[in-house]
């Protein structure tokens, strides 16, 4: 049997190996499972390993290939699914004690589309509980550790997905992004992470956190792989009323582009206080590369960027308060065994089932929605959200794409920010704005810090213009190859 290291492959190379018969889907799946066995005990990136299921899927792929059937877009590709996305017959815990023993009865649309395209699901990824966090330290099942430095965080909330891709446990993973939860861990772990336009990918089967903000997206090691994955996942879904009928382009066909004549908007507010010097230097160097490719750098302003964190933590917590009301000990999930009254069942089940960060956000959101405070907080936050969306509309009148850092720092140390929620929240200062505005964004590697930690560049495009974002990202990737 061939010795396979998934870090040597992208999807195109894997498919070429299948066709040359130098590697089978079963061998690729076994390589993923072996890497998981070696690295997951230390990284804690996966909460469930689906060995038997994955090997069965891989065997079916090999049978298809032996029969001469054409390659599907993700044929035999080992992937990991974030554990807040349902996969029928497997645990979907959201990294919470309240769902520790919940088995999904159906599969999320985005995940079903990946499987229909031939993907082999090898595991479910750890995350911050209910996707609430920026470091993956809020999981009820322990933190995920950074694949390059076990003393550091991988970012959150999709830290398990990011670590799994970076460590070679899979070729790609799904994440979810409510305020940066795909892009920030992608930046920390040195991979590509995409938050699509709101409505581009169905949310059916994604356990809700903030329903007007949540999006499922791909996490990969290359821009081309991310474009391929999004092309499979995207599109209207009858099960999700917020999914869009907007046509899905062939992202791969349009990926290679000449950037001469492009205007790249540099967001001036993203280069102020709080930005790490190494991050700024790496992002500035990437911007110079775009100039060398023929693009023109244009300074643009998002004047309300400074209000984004406050705005986000009113809207997101309010929506979380409403969405998490369903976890009450009645229908599914954890029920406090000592409860003797209905009131005790509600109170004790939620007290014991939810972790500290989830409780904090439920309390904040309930307060913002309460009588007497709704207008002062939630209604005002929605007005600010409109201003932020208009900022982007005006900025895109001047340029094809916007660029800024993904995160203000490289990966920080475990425990460094857990006692200061505000500092933790500020880790998402450059990412939450995109969720509030509903526009797509991508993080891709653009350098390293003096300590060798990855740094991400964030590329932002207008709504439903992911093609531009992929073209810009691919151009940088190609220039640095």
Report what the structure shows:
This protein is of the alpha/beta class and 481 residues long. It has a domain at 6-233: Amidase signature (AS) enzymes (Alpha-Beta Complex), CATH 3.90.1300.10. Helix content is 38%, strand content 13%. It contains 15 helices and eleven strands. The chain has helices spanning 11-20, 25-43, 51-66, 109-116, 159-166, 183-189, 223-233, 277-292, 308-323, 342-353, 356-369, 375-395, 421-425, 432-437, 466-479, and strands spanning 46-49, 78-82, 120-125, 172-177, 192-195, 215-220, 263-267, 296-300, 401-405, 441-448, 454-460. A hairpin with a 5-residue loop joins β10 (441-448) and β11. The chain is globular, with a radius of gyration of 21 Å. The chain starts with 10 loop residues before the first helix and ends with a helix.
Sum this structure up briefly.
The active site is at 82 (charge relay system), 157 (charge relay system), 181 (acyl-ester intermediate). The protein is α/β, with parallel strands linked by helices.
């Amino acid at each position: 049997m061939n010795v396979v290291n998934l870090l040597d492959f992208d999807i195109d190379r894997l498919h070429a190996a299948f066709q040359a018969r130098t590697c089978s889907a079963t061998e690729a799946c076994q390589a993923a499972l072996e890497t998981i066995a070696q690295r997951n005990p230390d990284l804690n990136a996966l909460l469930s390993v689906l060995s038997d299921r994955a090997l069965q899927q891989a065997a079916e792929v090999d049978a298809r290939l032996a029969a001469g059937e054409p390659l599907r877009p993700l044929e035999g590709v080992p992937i990991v699914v974030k554990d807040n996305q349902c996969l029928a017959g497997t645990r979907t815990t959201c990294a919470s004690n309240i769902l520790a023993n919940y088995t999904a009865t159906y599969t999320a649309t985005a995940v079903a589309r990946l499987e229909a395209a031939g993907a082999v699901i090898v595991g479910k990824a750890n995350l911050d509980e209910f996707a609430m966090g920026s470091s993956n330290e809020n999981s009820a099942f322990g933190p995920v550790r950074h694949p390059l430095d076990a003393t550091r965080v991988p970012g959150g909330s999709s830290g398990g997905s990011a670590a799994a891709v970076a460590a070679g446990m899979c070729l790609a993973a799904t994440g979810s992004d409510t305020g940066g939860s795909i892009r920030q861990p992608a930046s920390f772990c040195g991979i590509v992470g995409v938050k699509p336009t709101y409505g581009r990918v169905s949310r059916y089967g994604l356990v809700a956190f903030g329903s007007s903000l949540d999006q499922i997206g791909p996490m990969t090691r290359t821009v081309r792989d991310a474009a391929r994955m999004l092309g499979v996942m995207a599109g209207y879904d009858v099960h999700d009323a917020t999914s869009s009928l907007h046509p899905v382009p062939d992202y791969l066909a349009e990926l290679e582009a000449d950037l001469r004549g492009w205007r790249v908007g540099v967001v001036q507010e993203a280069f102020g206080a709080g930005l790490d010097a190494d991050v700024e230097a790496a992002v500035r160097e990437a911007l110079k590369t775009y100039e060398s490719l023929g693009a023109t750098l244009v300074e643009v302003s998002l004047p309300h960027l400074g209000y984004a964190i406050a705005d986000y933590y009113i809207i997101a917590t309010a929506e979380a308060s409403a969405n998490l009301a369903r976890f009450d000990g009645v229908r599914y999930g954890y029920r406090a065994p000592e409860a003797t009254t209905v009131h005790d069942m509600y109170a004790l089940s939620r007290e014991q089932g939810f972790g500290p960060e989830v409780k904090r956000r439920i309390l904040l959101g309930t307060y913002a929605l309460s009588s007497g405070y709704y207008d002062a907080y939630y209604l005002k936050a929605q007005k600010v959200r409109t201003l932020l969306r208009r900022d982007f509309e005006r900025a895109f009148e001047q340029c094809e794409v916007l660029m800024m850092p993904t995160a203000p720092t490289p990966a920080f140390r475990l425990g460094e920010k857990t006692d200061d929620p505000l500092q933790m929240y500020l880790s998402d200062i450059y990412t939450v704005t995109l969720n509030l505005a509903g526009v797509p964004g991508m993080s891709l590697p653009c350098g390293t810090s003096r300590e060798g930690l990855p740094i991400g560049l964030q590329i932002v495009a207008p709504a439903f213009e992911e093609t531009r974002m992929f073209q810009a990202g691919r151009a940088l990737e190609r220039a640095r190859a």
